[in-house]
Give the backbone structure.
Amino acid sequence: MSAHERDPIREAHRQWVAHGWDDAADGMAMVTSLVRAHQLLLERIEAVLRPLDLTFARYEVLRLLSFSSSGRMPMTRLGSLLQVHPTSVTSAVERLVRQGFVERQGRDDDRRVILAAITDEGRAVVEKATDGLNGEVFAAPGVGPGQVADLTRLLGALRASAGDRVE
Amino acid sequence: MSAHERDPIREAHRQWVAHGWDDAADGMAMVTSLVRAHQLLLERIEAVLRPLDLTFARYEVLRLLSFSSSGRMPMTRLGSLLQVHPTSVTSAVERLVRQGFVERQGRDDDRRVILAAITDEGRAVVEKATDGLNGEVFAAPGVGPGQVADLTRLLGALRASAGDRVE
């Protein structure tokens, strides 16, 4: 958007009020702002992860596995920690296996339980990705420390209202 | 996520601090919270739009066209208002044309300028979609009115820092 354009979300809010949708106008502006902020952050995240051939979803899988004491975790547990559908976990892990970053294993005491285990290559790439994300995005996400805390708290309230456990 | 699980974002924050990434831990928690809140809101939005065979991106195109006085707009203008890449606008409009919700027209005074024009069917579906989104999502986005205002303001600061014009 060029600098002399108006704010399109503010414009949409005006239209909402003009159409008599007053009770929904503020919520529309908030939701649309969140969708836009997500898009802007994702562009920055993908600029870091694309050269490493990772998406944010696959990065999160590697990150969780690298934090676990044994470097492996049942697929079902991954899904519940990542709060995504089992089919999303399966397709992310399948891609990571093809990339050599994860191996699939049967659990020793019950071969029917399928574990995802991070490889040395996986550990190397997740460390590189975390360095990049910390430096390029997380340490300077675009608003100051106080606003970061306020945003996290408000987004937590939104998550909690949808059933997430939020501490 | 089941109710007795811990908050995975809080857990990730603990890991970040434990690894000495203190300067990035709060930003990581904020960005991850925003990605999660976006996912939860998008699920609610898609539950409204899926029965109408619309995505949020295509809904936004129809909404903009329906607000314009003539019901039509140059493709380039759509892209700048929606703050998305021209190829995204093209593919959204192509799909809307196939659905019968939009027609492509050359501008009367310069046939090289391609306009997207909303059809009667497009106007009917965008009205239905807006009713649904207002009632199901925007009027009750999951946090109270004060929090909605605070969130919009903070997300606006984040958008502005990335170069968006924010009023």
The radius of gyration of chain A is 20 Å. The beta strands of chain A are 72-74, 102-107, 110-118. The helical segments of chain A are 8-18, 22-49, 56-67, 75-82, 86-98, 120-138, 145-161. Chain A is about 65% helix and 10% strand.
